[in-house]
What we know:
The chain has 4 helices and 8 strands; from the N terminus they run E-H-E-E-E-E-H-E-H-E-H-E. It has 200 residues and is an alpha/beta fold. Helix 3 packs parallel to helix 4. The two termini are 18 Å apart.
Amino acid sequence: MNPATHALIVIDVQNDFCPGGALAVVGGDEIVAPINALMEQFPVVVLTQDWHPKGHSSFASSHDGAAPFSAVQMSYGEQTLWPDHCIQGTEGAAFHPALRTDADLIIRKGMNPAIDSYSAFFENDRTTPTGLEGYLRTRGITTLTLAGLATDFCVAYSAIDAARLGFAVTVRTDLCRAIDLGGSLAAMTAEMTAAGVTIA
């Protein structure tokens, strides 16, 4: 068992990110059983859930003529446009049915229709907080292990932000799967390493 100061953060293991989903990550369902087993080793477990309103600004369908996986400039910088996914209250937004959900905290992100939220800690403006940092601080957490979907987007952004906030962070890449959009996996792995994240 890890010490009481160590939390497991499980990122976005939701139906839409698993095979058959609207934004499926190859092998996304393969990590569910080992993540469930890993939960036994942590005194604090947090799950995150992408939770978009219909017509979210990060959806390609919200921009006339835009194709999924193209990019646009938003007020906060470049935004990849995604297929409609993880819409609030839909089956696609639900956790994978085999995932254990008896967590200490479930944090929902991406609810602001005007801004996406990859990170578990901040929206994509990198300044608007989700509240996760405050929860972890009040629980006395100093060390984080991250797993989930997808390595090169929500996991990586969460890990980098956590390191920036002063947490000791490890990403279990064996318990993540990547989208790898135009070399994004290598790029974000390098960014995580540069931020001081341990890649395990």
